[in-house]
Design brief:
6 helices, 4-stranded antiparallel β-sheet, 40% strand, Methylamine Dehydrogenase, Chain H, 8-stranded antiparallel β-sheet, 30 strands, mainly beta, 13% helix, 445 residues
């Protein structure tokens, strides 16, 4: 990413002001000036009371986030229109989103693949860098990991319990010894990105830090700093299995580097350099190819053995921050600040297969379901889109809520979908469950 720290702070301030327009509505026009302060305080407490929402309550008409629209002087529909009109999408290439809007049409809604299950406001996901939104990871249909301020937290939906996994506000140091590990560890690491998969948690920091923890073990296993460059932020982590079944992870960094590590020894296996900051990488299911996207309009398809660029991915109008492979290894997707997600086929990379359009802003996170039936992508706020691959991306479900999205994750069995929502009042974790069509039950009707 090419934003300096001062610009980032200014933009985050703008985002916060706009994202909290609903809070201002609550605190402003809703409370009549001629009412007593005590009465206004009581009503504000009622509006912002921390309560969860179940699927049964949602079916009965309650807002899934617990927003009491009937007590506000604005309807949900009107507030939605205001958000779409006023939301500020960050662009590195001016007007990239507007130009793409004119080039592609939004696919009509109509899919119904995941249904609302539960929303817990005990969970408070947070975001440190507005362009990096891979901070929520489901390791089973009941277990999800996420960032909350300076801590990695674990939520169990089956027990409705919240626990801290690792606190980065103080000193974190490895309890195991590996060559190249910084035994002194780090102090007050600012976490920019997170990945949790296959029993491994890897957190990346603003100064190029990498902290690795095996979930089955106490403490931290490995700490390293990828680079001492001034522009060192770790942008993304991709955990994957190699051809022999071993666990590896690939780190994308703002110093234009991609680094590949073996988890058994925590040794650096490969280090590839590119002419621009790398914002995200995804390795193919067979481990032979890597999608590399970053601070350039064009992405790259790369040989995982030597880092050689095999094809350039031409079509996006701005910088990309997300990518993902379909499990078949033939297609993959890239997400861009031009408000689109492009799907590519390795058998013909002259142009993308299709261009999928968002509503508000950049495509910051992409996931394919493990069975390959669905492609999901998250915008910076308010919307997650679920496309049917069987319908050739021509049918979609739109999940609609309010708040900045810290991350989106499917469980390994595709049964649960979790969305982290960052908001001053309505921060929460949304839980959706996969819908099933049990046609064989019709015989008993």
């Amino acid at each position: 990413m090419s934003m300096n720290r001062a610009d980032e702070v200014d933009y985050m301030t703008d985002e916060s002001e706009m994202g909290n327009a609903m809070d201002d509505e609550m605190e402003g026009d809703f409370f009549d000036a001629d009412r007593g302060r005590g009465e206004a305080d009581d009503e504000y407490d009622l509006l912002t009371r921390v309560t969860d929402t179940s699927s049964a309550q949602a079916r009965s008409g309650r807002d899934i986030q617990g927003i009491p629209w009937d007590r506000l002087q604005i309807t949900r529909q009107n507030y939605r229109q205001t958000r779409i009109q006023q939301y500020k999408n960050y662009e590195n290439i001016p007007s990239s989103g507007d130009r793409m809007n004119k080039k592609c049409k939004q696919v009509e809604k109509g899919g119904n693949y995941y249904e609302f299950q539960y929303n817990t406001r005990l969970v408070k996901p947070t975001i440190l860098h507005f362009q990096l939104r891979n901070l929520v990871w489901a390791t089973s249909k009941h277990d999800v990991y996420f960032m909350s301020n300076s801590s990695v937290m674990h939520w169990s939906s089956i027990c409705s319990s919240l626990s801290e996994v690792l606190d980065f506000s103080g000193h974190v140091a490895p309890g195991e010894k590996y060559p190249g590990s910084l035994l002194d560890g780090f102090t007050r690491t600012q976490i920019s990105t997170l990945a949790v998969k296959d029993g491994l948690m890897v957190a990346g920091g603003f100064q190029g830090e990498l902290t690795c923890k095996l979930l089955e073990r106490q403490g931290v296993s490995f700490c390293t700093r990828t680079t001492f460059d001034d522009n060192a932020i770790t942008n993304a982590i991709d955990i994957y299995k190699d051809s022999s079944g071993g666990i590896r992870f690939m780190a994308s960094n703002n110093d234009c580097g991609v680094r590949d590590y073996d988890v058994e020894t925590f040794q650096l296996l490969n280090h590839f350099q590119f002419p621009w900051s790398v914002n995200h990488t995804s390795i193919s299911p067979d481990g032979k190819l890597v999608v590399v996207v970053g601070d350039d309009r064009d992405g790259s398809l790369v040989d995982s053995r030597n880092g050689k660029v095999l094809f350039s991915l031409v079509g996006h109008l701005d910088y990309s921050f997300a990518s993902a492979w379909h499990p078949d290894g033939q297609t993959f997707a890239t997400g861009n600040q031009d408000k689109t997600c492009r799907v590519w086929d390795i058998r013909n990379l002259s142009s993308s297969v299709t261009v999928l359009k968002g509503n508000l802003g950049a495509v910051r996170s992409i996931r394919y379901s493990s069975d390959g039936q669905f492609l999901l992508f998250a915008e910076p706020a308010d919307f997650v889109h679920i496309y049917s691959t069987r319908a050739h991306y021509k049918k979609r479900q739109e999940l609609d809520f309010f708040g900045e999205i810290s991350g989106v994750s499917l469980s390994p069995d595709d049964e649960s979908l979790y969305i982290g929502v960052w908001d001053r009042v309505y921060a929460s974790l949304l839980h959706y469950s996969k819908r099933h069509m049990y046609i064989y039950l019709d015989s008993y009707a």
